[in-house]
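Reviewers of the previous submission asked for a worked example of the structure-prediction workflow described in the proposal, so we include one complete record here. The input consisted solely of the amino acid sequence. No template or homolog information was supplied to the procedure at any stage.
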Amino acid sequence: MAARTEGAGRLHADFKRAANDELTKFERREREFQKEDRDERAKRLQLPVERYNREDWRVRKPSRPFHRA
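From that input alone, the workflow returned the following structure tokens.
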């Protein structure tokens, strides 16, 4: 009986690992798609494309400085 539960646990772990790998791939593709879509819309609307700091994605840096009159 122990061999049966060990095999099931191993299969479950393999399934979880494969599912996690697929989710990671999907999330990466989704982020790339969103970035391309955002850049395309900014270009179409003639807005400056913002660049993000890799260390802290919450810090937004404009691609060119804004001039205030």
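Residues 8 and 14 are 10 Å apart (CA to CA). We consider this example representative of the routine output the project will generate in years two and three.
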